[in-house]
Amino acid sequence: MQITKHQLAKGTKFETPYYIIKGNTAGKTVMITAGVHGDETANVLAAKKLVDLLQKNVHHIDKGTLIIVPIVNQIAYKRRFRGIPDLNRTFPCKPNVAARHPLASELFRLAKQFQPEWYIDLHEARGFSKIDPSVLGQTLLTNPRSEAIPLVKRIVNHLNRSIAQKSRQFSIRIRHLPGSGRTAAYRLLKSNSITVETSTSMPKAIRVEYQMKILRYLLNETGLIKDERTSATA
């Protein structure tokens, strides 16, 4: 396994590190982004924790390539606000149409370079989707007709079996979000794209753990790591 650190949007005010982790043999390519919105912090901590565990060889990429961008929007993250404009509405919506923000353009260029089979965008949202279907806390989202739908269902079923408190269980939302990284990767790169939304109504440590469990399950399913699944706890 080889881990290298790089800089996205190098030399600009949007510069932010990302990591490329390559296994010893060929396999799928998975891209993970976090910190698109600066006021969502548990997803950033989960992405950083995953990098740390890989660097310590606690988790090991056996085959394939993993790209992790732990804090996409450094400026918004330092100020702990969503970001103006909302970065997750500025990704390209059509072929040959540019992104509407330099950082979205750089991130999409990176995705286009690696053509990931899987594009995972980590987020957080208010409330609990099981109580109020209009909110996104505790949901996994993917696009209509996406080949990611069966895996999303397996992840949600796997998590919910061990979450005793039904209000904290995960839901599935299947919808496009034009301008988002998820939908841009799906429509323009043909990636299997998933958005993870843990609920900010829970303690941060629990949110980080849910994000980590989802990532471990997904990396196991895509063949990048082996025997790393653990059950979620409420």
Automatic annotation (TrEMBL):
InterPro entries: AstE_AspA_cat, N-alpha-Ac-DABA_deacetylase. Signal peptide: none annotated. SUPFAM superfamilies: Zn-dependent exopeptidases. The keyword rRNA-binding does not apply. Its cofactor is Zn(2+). One of its GO terms (molecular function) is hydrolase activity, acting on ester bonds. Keywords: Hydrolase, Metal-binding, Zinc. Residues 26-135 form the Succinylglutamate desuccinylase/Aspartoacylase catalytic domain. PANTHER family: BLL3975 PROTEIN. This is Deacylase.
